[in-house]
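tool=predict chain=A
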Amino acid sequence: MQRKKAIVTGGSSGIGRGIVYSLAEDGYDIVFSYRSKKENAYRVLEELRTKYPGGSFEGIEAELSEDGAGTAFFRQAVEKLGGLDLLVNNAGVTILESIFDLTEKNMDYLYRLLFRNYVILMREAAAYMAAGGIKGSIINISSVRGNSAHPGDLVYGGIKAALNRACQSVALDVASCGIRVNNILPGATRRFTPEEEKLADPAHVEKIRFLSERIPLERYGTPEDVGNAVVFLASEKASYITGASLVVDGGLSLPGLAETAAEAESGWGRSRRRV
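tool=predict ok
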Protein backbone atom coordinates (compact mmCIF):
# COMPACT_ATOMS: atom_id res chain seq x y z
CA MET A 1 0.00 0.00 0.00
CA GLN A 2 1.32 3.45 -0.93
CA ARG A 3 2.17 5.59 2.08
CA LYS A 4 0.43 8.92 2.59
CA LYS A 5 2.49 12.10 2.35
CA ALA A 6 2.32 15.15 4.62
CA ILE A 7 3.99 18.52 4.99
CA VAL A 8 3.99 20.03 8.49
CA THR A 9 5.37 23.48 9.28
CA GLY A 10 7.03 23.97 12.65
CA GLY A 11 7.31 20.26 13.32
CA SER A 12 10.34 20.02 15.59
CA SER A 13 8.80 21.04 18.92
CA GLY A 14 5.57 21.66 20.82
CA ILE A 15 2.28 21.07 19.04
CA GLY A 16 4.05 20.52 15.72
CA ARG A 17 6.11 17.70 17.16
CA GLY A 18 2.95 16.05 18.47
CA ILE A 19 1.37 16.36 15.03
CA VAL A 20 4.41 14.81 13.34
CA TYR A 21 4.47 11.85 15.75
CA SER A 22 0.73 11.26 15.34
CA LEU A 23 0.94 11.33 11.55
CA ALA A 24 3.93 8.98 11.55
CA GLU A 25 1.96 6.56 13.71
CA ASP A 26 -0.83 6.75 11.12
CA GLY A 27 1.51 5.79 8.28
CA TYR A 28 2.53 9.12 6.76
CA ASP A 29 5.83 10.06 5.19
CA ILE A 30 6.58 13.57 6.46
CA VAL A 31 8.64 16.62 5.67
CA PHE A 32 8.53 19.30 8.35
CA SER A 33 10.04 22.75 8.68
CA TYR A 34 11.94 24.09 11.64
CA ARG A 35 13.20 27.61 12.25
CA SER A 36 16.39 27.48 14.27
CA LYS A 37 16.78 24.63 16.79
CA LYS A 38 18.52 22.02 14.67
CA GLU A 39 19.13 19.75 17.66
CA ASN A 40 15.37 19.43 18.21
CA ALA A 41 14.77 18.64 14.55
CA TYR A 42 17.55 16.04 14.45
CA ARG A 43 16.23 14.41 17.62
CA VAL A 44 12.73 14.14 16.15
CA LEU A 45 14.07 12.70 12.89
CA GLU A 46 16.19 10.15 14.73
CA GLU A 47 13.23 9.00 16.83
CA LEU A 48 10.96 8.75 13.79
CA ARG A 49 13.45 6.80 11.70
CA THR A 50 14.11 4.41 14.57
CA LYS A 51 10.47 3.76 15.39
CA TYR A 52 9.15 3.73 11.80
CA PRO A 53 11.98 2.27 9.64
CA GLY A 54 9.70 1.92 6.63
CA GLY A 55 8.88 5.62 6.54
CA SER A 56 10.50 8.66 5.00
CA PHE A 57 11.12 11.65 7.26
CA GLU A 58 12.95 14.89 6.51
CA GLY A 59 13.37 18.30 8.13
CA ILE A 60 14.05 21.57 6.30
CA GLU A 61 15.23 24.76 7.97
CA ALA A 62 13.11 27.76 6.96
CA GLU A 63 12.20 31.20 8.27
CA LEU A 64 8.67 31.22 6.90
CA SER A 65 8.01 34.89 7.62
CA GLU A 66 10.48 35.90 4.89
CA ASP A 67 9.49 36.67 1.31
CA GLY A 68 9.56 33.55 -0.87
CA ALA A 69 10.46 31.21 1.99
CA GLY A 70 7.09 29.47 2.15
CA THR A 71 6.98 28.74 -1.57
CA ALA A 72 10.59 27.53 -1.60
CA PHE A 73 9.99 25.26 1.40
CA PHE A 74 6.82 23.84 -0.11
CA ARG A 75 8.49 22.97 -3.40
CA GLN A 76 11.47 21.35 -1.67
CA ALA A 77 9.15 19.35 0.57
CA VAL A 78 6.97 18.09 -2.28
CA GLU A 79 10.06 17.07 -4.24
CA LYS A 80 11.39 15.08 -1.27
CA LEU A 81 8.01 13.44 -0.67
CA GLY A 82 7.23 12.76 -4.33
CA GLY A 83 3.64 13.88 -3.79
CA LEU A 84 1.28 15.37 -1.24
CA ASP A 85 -1.89 14.31 0.56
CA LEU A 86 -1.89 16.67 3.52
CA LEU A 87 -0.60 20.13 4.43
CA VAL A 88 -0.58 21.16 8.10
CA ASN A 89 0.09 24.86 8.68
CA ASN A 90 1.38 24.93 12.26
CA ALA A 91 4.50 27.10 12.50
CA GLY A 92 4.03 30.06 14.78
CA VAL A 93 4.84 32.04 17.88
CA THR A 94 2.71 33.68 20.55
CA ILE A 95 3.52 37.35 21.14
CA LEU A 96 1.13 39.27 23.37
CA GLU A 97 1.15 43.06 23.58
CA SER A 98 -1.48 45.49 24.81
CA ILE A 99 -2.44 48.46 22.67
CA PHE A 100 -0.22 50.59 24.93
CA ASP A 101 2.87 48.47 24.25
CA LEU A 102 2.20 47.46 20.65
CA THR A 103 5.25 47.45 18.37
CA GLU A 104 5.00 47.53 14.60
CA LYS A 105 7.86 45.06 14.32
CA ASN A 106 5.99 42.36 16.24
CA MET A 107 2.70 43.18 14.53
CA ASP A 108 4.26 42.77 11.08
CA TYR A 109 6.09 39.59 12.09
CA LEU A 110 2.93 37.94 13.42
CA TYR A 111 0.97 38.86 10.30
CA ARG A 112 3.65 37.54 7.96
CA LEU A 113 4.19 34.27 9.85
CA LEU A 114 0.69 33.43 11.10
CA PHE A 115 -1.52 34.66 8.27
CA ARG A 116 0.35 35.59 5.10
CA ASN A 117 2.52 32.47 5.21
CA TYR A 118 -0.47 30.23 5.96
CA VAL A 119 -2.35 31.64 2.97
CA ILE A 120 0.65 31.25 0.67
CA LEU A 121 1.11 27.62 1.67
CA MET A 122 -2.62 26.95 1.26
CA ARG A 123 -2.36 28.42 -2.24
CA GLU A 124 0.63 26.23 -3.11
CA ALA A 125 -0.95 23.06 -1.70
CA ALA A 126 -4.33 23.68 -3.32
CA ALA A 127 -2.76 24.35 -6.72
CA TYR A 128 -0.57 21.23 -6.49
CA MET A 129 -3.43 18.99 -5.38
CA ALA A 130 -5.85 20.34 -7.97
CA ALA A 131 -3.35 19.95 -10.82
CA GLY A 132 -2.69 16.36 -9.80
CA GLY A 133 -6.31 15.43 -9.15
CA ILE A 134 -5.45 14.79 -5.50
CA LYS A 135 -8.40 14.90 -3.12
CA GLY A 136 -6.23 15.98 -0.26
CA SER A 137 -6.59 17.90 2.97
CA ILE A 138 -5.31 21.21 4.33
CA ILE A 139 -5.37 21.81 8.08
CA ASN A 140 -4.42 25.05 9.82
CA ILE A 141 -3.53 25.20 13.50
CA SER A 142 -5.32 28.28 14.77
CA SER A 143 -6.29 29.05 18.40
CA VAL A 144 -9.28 29.44 20.69
CA ARG A 145 -8.02 33.02 21.05
CA GLY A 146 -9.60 33.57 17.64
CA ASN A 147 -13.01 33.05 19.24
CA SER A 148 -12.67 35.10 22.43
CA ALA A 149 -10.73 38.15 23.54
CA HIS A 150 -7.99 38.29 26.15
CA PRO A 151 -5.94 41.27 27.33
CA GLY A 152 -2.94 41.86 25.11
CA ASP A 153 -3.93 39.59 22.21
CA LEU A 154 -5.42 42.10 19.80
CA VAL A 155 -2.90 41.20 17.06
CA TYR A 156 -2.34 37.50 17.83
CA GLY A 157 -6.03 36.82 18.53
CA GLY A 158 -7.16 39.01 15.65
CA ILE A 159 -4.97 37.10 13.21
CA LYS A 160 -6.32 33.78 14.48
CA ALA A 161 -9.88 35.08 14.04
CA ALA A 162 -9.02 36.09 10.47
CA LEU A 163 -7.56 32.64 9.82
CA ASN A 164 -10.73 30.97 11.12
CA ARG A 165 -12.78 33.04 8.68
CA ALA A 166 -10.34 32.62 5.77
CA CYS A 167 -10.53 28.84 6.13
CA GLN A 168 -14.19 28.96 5.16
CA SER A 169 -13.55 30.85 1.92
CA VAL A 170 -10.67 28.59 0.92
CA ALA A 171 -12.83 25.54 1.62
CA LEU A 172 -15.39 26.88 -0.86
CA ASP A 173 -12.73 27.67 -3.45
CA VAL A 174 -11.35 24.12 -3.49
CA ALA A 175 -14.43 22.01 -2.71
CA SER A 176 -15.11 21.20 -6.37
CA CYS A 177 -11.61 19.66 -6.55
CA GLY A 178 -12.39 17.33 -3.66
CA ILE A 179 -9.92 19.15 -1.38
CA ARG A 180 -10.97 19.78 2.23
CA VAL A 181 -9.78 22.69 4.39
CA ASN A 182 -10.25 22.82 8.16
CA ASN A 183 -8.83 24.56 11.21
CA ILE A 184 -7.97 23.17 14.63
CA LEU A 185 -8.21 25.57 17.59
CA PRO A 186 -6.07 24.37 20.49
CA GLY A 187 -6.49 25.81 23.96
CA ALA A 188 -3.94 25.55 26.76
CA THR A 189 -1.46 22.96 25.48
CA ARG A 190 1.84 21.69 26.87
CA ARG A 191 4.72 22.75 24.65
CA PHE A 192 7.47 20.71 26.33
CA THR A 193 8.28 17.07 26.93
CA PRO A 194 8.40 16.04 30.63
CA GLU A 195 12.20 16.30 30.48
CA GLU A 196 12.10 19.78 28.92
CA GLU A 197 9.47 20.90 31.43
CA LYS A 198 11.89 20.28 34.30
CA LEU A 199 14.10 23.01 32.81
CA ALA A 200 11.30 25.38 31.87
CA ASP A 201 10.61 28.78 33.43
CA PRO A 202 8.93 28.22 36.83
CA ALA A 203 6.25 30.73 35.83
CA HIS A 204 5.31 28.47 32.91
CA VAL A 205 5.09 25.43 35.17
CA GLU A 206 2.91 27.40 37.60
CA LYS A 207 0.63 28.44 34.74
CA ILE A 208 0.13 24.77 33.83
CA ARG A 209 -0.75 23.95 37.44
CA PHE A 210 -3.12 26.91 37.75
CA LEU A 211 -4.99 26.31 34.50
CA SER A 212 -5.14 22.54 34.91
CA GLU A 213 -7.35 23.04 37.94
CA ARG A 214 -9.73 25.23 35.95
CA ILE A 215 -10.10 23.29 32.71
CA PRO A 216 -13.43 21.42 32.76
CA LEU A 217 -11.77 18.12 31.79
CA GLU A 218 -9.26 18.82 34.58
CA ARG A 219 -6.01 18.43 32.68
CA TYR A 220 -3.78 20.44 30.39
CA GLY A 221 -3.82 19.63 26.70
CA THR A 222 -0.96 17.74 25.05
CA PRO A 223 0.55 18.04 21.57
CA GLU A 224 -0.76 14.54 20.90
CA ASP A 225 -4.33 15.74 21.55
CA VAL A 226 -3.91 18.13 18.64
CA GLY A 227 -2.07 15.51 16.58
CA ASN A 228 -4.94 13.05 17.01
CA ALA A 229 -7.37 15.72 15.80
CA VAL A 230 -5.20 16.28 12.72
CA VAL A 231 -5.18 12.56 11.95
CA PHE A 232 -8.97 12.46 12.24
CA LEU A 233 -9.64 15.52 10.07
CA ALA A 234 -7.25 14.22 7.39
CA SER A 235 -8.88 10.78 7.34
CA GLU A 236 -11.77 9.34 5.37
CA LYS A 237 -13.77 9.35 8.60
CA ALA A 238 -13.91 13.14 8.22
CA SER A 239 -14.54 13.11 4.47
CA TYR A 240 -17.72 15.19 4.81
CA ILE A 241 -16.13 17.90 7.00
CA THR A 242 -14.75 21.07 5.42
CA GLY A 243 -14.59 24.73 6.40
CA ALA A 244 -14.82 23.77 10.08
CA SER A 245 -12.91 25.05 13.09
CA LEU A 246 -12.53 22.24 15.62
CA VAL A 247 -11.88 23.36 19.19
CA VAL A 248 -9.48 21.11 21.15
CA ASP A 249 -9.28 22.67 24.61
CA GLY A 250 -10.82 20.34 27.18
CA GLY A 251 -13.77 22.72 27.54
CA LEU A 252 -11.60 25.65 28.67
CA SER A 253 -13.35 28.17 26.43
CA LEU A 254 -16.91 27.04 27.20
CA PRO A 255 -17.88 28.96 30.38
CA GLY A 256 -19.06 32.55 30.10
CA LEU A 257 -18.39 35.20 32.70
CA ALA A 258 -19.56 34.56 36.24
CA GLU A 259 -22.84 36.45 36.68
CA THR A 260 -22.83 36.74 40.46
CA ALA A 261 -20.25 37.09 43.22
CA ALA A 262 -21.33 33.70 44.55
CA GLU A 263 -20.59 32.06 41.20
CA ALA A 264 -17.16 33.66 41.05
CA GLU A 265 -16.31 32.61 44.60
CA SER A 266 -17.46 29.03 43.99
CA GLY A 267 -14.92 28.51 41.19
CA TRP A 268 -16.93 29.49 38.12
CA GLY A 269 -15.69 27.80 34.99
CA ARG A 270 -14.51 24.65 36.71
CA SER A 271 -16.38 21.43 36.26
CA ARG A 272 -18.21 20.37 39.42
CA ARG A 273 -17.33 16.77 40.15
CA ARG A 274 -20.29 14.74 41.33
CA VAL A 275 -19.78 12.85 44.55
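The longest strand covers residues 28-34. Residues 4-265 form a domain with the Rossmann fold fold (CATH 3.40.50.720).
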